[in-house]
Amino acid sequence: MLVWFMHGATVRQSEYADPLRSRIIREFPDHGLPIPEFYSCFWGDILGHTDQLWDWIQQDLAAFKWDYPQIEIEDVFHYSQRREQLITGFFNDIFSYLNTRQGREVRRAIAVQFLSFLADNPLEDDLHIVAHSLGSVILWDILFSENFEASDPAFYVRNVIRGLSGPGTGRKVKLRSVTTLGSPILIFSQLLRFNAAQLRQFARRYTATPLRWINIIHASDVFAYPIRASLELEDANLYFRDHYLGERNFLKKKMGDVTMALGLTADHTRYWRSSRVADLAIANLLGDYTRLEQISPILEFGEFD
């Protein structure tokens, strides 16, 4: 079994998936199964250093303060800390990937790492992908986008996945499951012209065991949205579930937008460390449908996530 991790925006360390990986390693022997081969794909360094954008903003604010020393910066520029989180933490990476040149470089880096991973594990044929945030958007782009020329690095990946490639010779792996975490695919669907028909056509090629896709949404993550309705999967040979990680949290309900602002980035980045995410991801890897259906979407206040 091959397990391929894809990180999202703001990640600048290749160890991002280690907490989830450790949970998988601990559980698989309990099922009498060999530990999978893992790879944490990393491309964050290609998207540049996010501090530069905020440095420019700070320079402009300092210039304003010089011209108007009697005015407090906080009175003309609200929510500075939250703005910094969004600009340096999300918008920089998102718009960098949407840049034609940088997007291609990211896909090239992913393709090179992916092909190397397959070469290092020549006897493994079953592929499972776990993608977070922007990584889920890039994954869809690589697998199903119609926007690329035939020379785009995305096709290096498609050419080795059975059902996406042509009838040519060479090594092929079978994509068995996809787990998306905190995915904003719905937001990007119009911008990147995602064609759900491509997914349905791919899924129809699974004639024995259906492809499994679990989309995990934390209740407080404003970047994560369900996508089942948008994919129009009624007649597709695809096991798809939007899984909600909810919680009965009185404080969040009572304080509303305040807690949303405070947890804006924290709730979006906690998936890799969540025990509930690990339970769902492991069940998806194993094809344990009973477990997938029985995991409760609700935590009581104070329970550990």
Strand content: 15-25%
| Number of continuous helical runs | 15
Number of strands: 7
CATH architecture: 3-Layer(aba) Sandwich
Regarding CATH, which class?
Alpha Beta
Describe this structure in words.
The chain has 15 helices and seven strands. Strands 2-1-3-4-5-6-7 form a seven-stranded parallel beta sheet, sandwiched between helices. The chain has a single domain (2-300), classed as Alpha/Beta hydrolase fold, catalytic domain (Rossmann fold, 3-Layer(aba) Sandwich). The protein is α/β, with parallel strands linked by helices and 305 residues long. It starts with a strand and ends in a 5-residue tail after the last strand. It has helices at residues 18-27, 51-67, 73-76, 80-98, 100-120, 134-144, 154-158, 185-188, 196-203, 228-231, 250-255, 257-262, 266-269, 275-286, 289-294; strands spanning 2-6, 37-41, 126-132, 174-181, 211-218, 238-248, 298-300.
Compact description:
The protein is of the alpha/beta class. The protein has 15 helices and 7 strands.
Walk me through the topology.
Layout: E1 2-6, H1 18-27, E2 37-41, H2 51-67, H3 73-76, H4 80-98, H5 100-120, E3 126-132, H6 134-144, H7 154-158, E4 174-181, H8 185-188, H9 196-203, E5 211-218, H10 228-231, E6 238-248, H11 250-255, H12 257-262, H13 266-269, H14 275-286, H15 289-294, E7 298-300
Helix pairs in contact: 1-14, 2-4
